[in-house]
Write a structure and sequence with these properties.
Length: 135
């Protein structure tokens, strides 16, 4: 259990409109901190991230599968397939893709039967995964 016996805070504005806080001092055990400026958000915010949805069908698949995906922003997209040991067994650069829905044919006929993970990754920090069974 942590105990913080000495902490002093000073806001950069009124209580309702804090935009920064100065930690005037804090002592936790033998550690001391003081006079450091920290930005404060009014509400907790998640980092901005683009969305990517992904579906692969038919599943199970024998030869060709259809990869359907939707992007909320245009971006360059790469398709990769991994086996159950995490080894990359197939990679395809789909190039720049516009926002919206798109489809790509995925040829898995040369892969042995088994379980695979399909990962679509965009350069805007997006990714989506799906599992497929090759039989």
């Amino acid at each position: 259990m942590w105990q913080v016996p000495d902490v002093g805070l000073r806001s950069g504005s009124t209580f309702e409109e804090w935009d920064w806080i100065i930690l005037e001092y804090a002592r936790v055990g033998a550690l001391e901190f003081g006079t450091e400026r920290f930005p404060v958000a009014a509400e907790p915010t998640a980092p901005e991230e683009s969305a990517l949805t992904l579906a692969v069908y038919p599943n199970p698949v024998r030869g060709d599968a259809t990869v359907r995906f939707a992007l909320d922003v245009p971006q360059r997209v790469t398709l990769a397939v991994f086996d159950v040991l995490g080894r990359r067994v197939l990679t395809t650069d789909l190039g720049p893709q516009p926002a919206g829905e798109a489809m790509h044919r995925l040829d898995v006929a040369r892969l042995p039967a088994g379980l695979y993970v399909v990962r679509l990754t965009g350069d805007a920090g997006t990714s989506g995964t799906a599992r497929i069974v090759r039989h």
